Amino acid sequence: MGKMLLRRDDDTHARLRLFPVERHLNPMGNIHGGIIMSLIDICLFTTWRLLSNTDIGGTVTLELSNQFVGPGVLDQPLDAIGEIVRETGRMVFVRGQVEQEHGIVASFSGIIRKTGQ
Questions:
Q1: Would you say the pTM of this structure is higher than 0.85?
Q2: Among 5, 35, 54, 102, which lies 20 to 30 A Cα-Cα from 45?
Q3: Which residues lie in coiled coils (predicted)?
């Protein structure tokens, strides 16, 4: 994926930043949807890890839904901002959006299954 940074925005939001490079582009010159979906999947786990301070070993993506709402461009960092909606004994529900300076690129929700606990 390349260089990424993670930070906690506040008590309820985590931000995963990707710095797009040319290999992330599709033939139309926008960030490829597969790159955006990979960033989202990583964001599910980094959001849970950062906001709950939990060891996330032995977990898997159970469900991932996203909606592309705008193009991702090369010259701006791509931020996936996630929040935990609910956590149960075996599952973590996360939602968020992917954005750049020019606006929202995608929105998403996902479920993490805790398998190693």
A1: yes
A2: 102
A3: none
